[in-house]
């Protein structure tokens, strides 16, 4: 499918701009042309992508918790004593007496439009525009993660928790909230990263600004973003602004630094032959650098399995911070342990706009049981049908207008049935369970609604 076909399908631009989009731009460097041409299609399927990402890496959020404080695996989650939220009173069901098998798991074939109990309950908790503003494009999927145990799934290599849950946590506003191309902001970020890497920050002036759209399309950026927002929601609009352009800088060792408009920073090594996944010891050795890049110091390597045959998927090392949005992924180190390649999400550059009181864990559990959560947008799969095995406090990953503290609950729906998912790991024979993730806003709903309404 050509760019013209895609643009005509979503009706974003005039015919003259469609023709221009198909034609090459003389003398202009266009970075990632395949990505640019596929963006409208990706926007069309942003919900499906979110589901896949949630299935592949259910703990991909920036969240923190200790085994003693967060592990809740001793019993199946009880029915809440609180009355159901108004919109779900007629549909809320009691928890089963036995572990739930695969037939109780969400229907992966269900269309994203078939919204379940959670969405109606969330409407009773938060206005739709507020829920939309805090739900990342890649953080609201409803897919299952398969693992032999919760420990294998969550994969926390070190205890990331504070001594106690904090009483308050910040709310952050996205660098993309203003909807613009911010070259000055990108160069400022590049300077800070260069300094953190021990490089000359003045090299940022040599970085080349590369657009992923033609000049005519860039001139229509406000219009395209508005159309994406109207047709596909906030997530698609943010993806458009985030990938509109990036600064690119080649360093003297051949490595490449890139800063996108959404402030995502990527360091690509010139030669990957000497690189390997970062270990705990190497993480400690890079502590100063990581602090300079934002304080991401908790190493996680979640392990999940393919739902097609049950084989283990490779774990990707990931750094998170307990009180920070964003994360660092794809971490690789050279043989001497020096950090040589990484991606730092743009949420790390978000602006703090408020400090709100944290909702106690027991109150968050009550909301969870009553359907007041983000995520799992398919019919079925209510939390009361499974057992809560982990709770963590932090931030969702993925582009959002506002990064709000959330309680992340991991729920075990019992052994997977082969008719729906593979029943066992083909290599080890270990029984695989189906896990689903639910996110409950961890701040007062009224305070959050007031803050976002006044800030937008």
Task: Set down the secondary structure blueprint.
Layout: H1 3-10, H2 15-22, H3 33-44, H4 46-56, E1 62-64, H5 67-70, H6 117-125, H7 128-134, E2 145-147, H8 150-154, E3 168-173, H9 183-196, E4 208-211, H10 215-219, H11 221-232, H12 234-242, E5 245-250, E6 256-260, E7 265-268, E8 276-277, H13 280-285, H14 287-292, E9 298-300, E10 318-320, E11 328-333, E12 339-344, E13 351-357, H15 361-369, E14 387-395, E15 402-403, E16 406-415, E17 433-441, H16 445-455
Antiparallel strand pairs: 1-14, 2-17, 3-13, 3-15, 4-5, 5-6, 6-7, 7-12, 8-11, 9-10, 10-11, 11-12, 14-16, 16-17
Helix pairs in contact: 1-2, 1-3, 3-12, 11-12
Note down, in words, how this protein is organized.
With about 450 residues, the protein is α+β, with helices and mostly antiparallel strands. It is built from 16 helices and 17 strands. Strands 4, 5, 6, 7, 8, 9, 10, 11 and 12 form a nine-stranded antiparallel β-sheet that branches. A hairpin with a 7-residue loop joins β10 and β11. α11 runs antiparallel to α12 (about 235-240). It is globular and about 55 Å long. It starts with a helix and ends with a helix.
């Amino acid at each position: 499918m050509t760019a013209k076909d895609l643009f005509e399908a979503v009706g974003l631009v005039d015919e003259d701009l469609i023709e221009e989009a198909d034609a090459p731009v003389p003398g202009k460097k266009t970075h990632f042309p395949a990505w640019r041409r596929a963006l409208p299609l990706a926007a069309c399927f942003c919900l499906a992508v979110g589901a896949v990402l949630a299935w592949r890496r259910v703990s991909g959020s920036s969240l923190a918790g200790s085994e003693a404080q967060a592990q809740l695996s001793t019993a199946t989650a009880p029915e809440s004593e609180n009355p159901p939220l108004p919109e779900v009173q007629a549909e809320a069901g009691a928890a089963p007496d036995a572990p739930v098998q695969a037939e109780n798991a969400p229907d992966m074939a269900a269309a994203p439009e078939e919204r379940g109990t959670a969405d109606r309950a969330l409407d009773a908790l938060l206005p739709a525009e507020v829920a939309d503003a805090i739900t990342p494009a890649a953080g609201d999927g409803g897919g299952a993660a398969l693992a032999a145990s919760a420990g294998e799934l969550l994969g926390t290599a070190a205890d990331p928790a504070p001594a106690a849950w904090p009483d308050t946590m910040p709310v952050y506003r996205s660098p993309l909230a203003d909807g613009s191309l911010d070259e000055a902001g990108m160069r400022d970020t590049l300077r800070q990263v260069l300094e953190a890497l021990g490089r000359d920050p003045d090299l940022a002036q040599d970085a080349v600004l590369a657009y992923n759209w033609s000049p005519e399309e860039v001139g229509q950026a406000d219009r395209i973003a508005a159309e994406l927002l109207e047709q596909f929601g906030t997530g698609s609009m943010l993806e458009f602004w985030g990938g509109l352009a990036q600064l690119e800088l080649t360093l003297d060792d051949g490595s490449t630094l890139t800063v996108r408009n959404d402030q995502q920073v990527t360091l690509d090594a010139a030669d990957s032959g000497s690189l390997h996944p970062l270990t705990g010891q190497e993480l400690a050795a890079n502590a100063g650098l990581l602090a300079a890049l934002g304080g991401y110091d908790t190493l996680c390597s979640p392990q999940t399995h393919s739902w097609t045959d049950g084989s283990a998927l490779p774990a990707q090392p990931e750094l998170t911070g307990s009180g920070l949005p964003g994360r660092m992924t794809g971490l690789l180190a050279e043989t001497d342990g020096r950090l040589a390649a990484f991606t730092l999400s743009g949420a790390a550059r978000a602006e703090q706009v408020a400090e709100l009181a944290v909702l106690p864990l027991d109150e968050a559990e009550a909301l969870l049981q009553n359907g007041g959560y983000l995520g799992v947008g398919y019919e079925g799969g209510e939390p009361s049908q499974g057992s809560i095995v982990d709770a963590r406090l932090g931030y969702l990953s993925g582009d959002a207008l506002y990064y709000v503290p959330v309680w992340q609950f991991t729920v075990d729906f019992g052994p997977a049935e082969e008719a729906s998912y593979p029943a066992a790991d083909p290599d080890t024979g270990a029984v695989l369970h189906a896990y689903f993730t639910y996110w409950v806003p961890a701040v007062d709903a009224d305070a959050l609604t007031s803050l976002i309404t006044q800030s937008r």
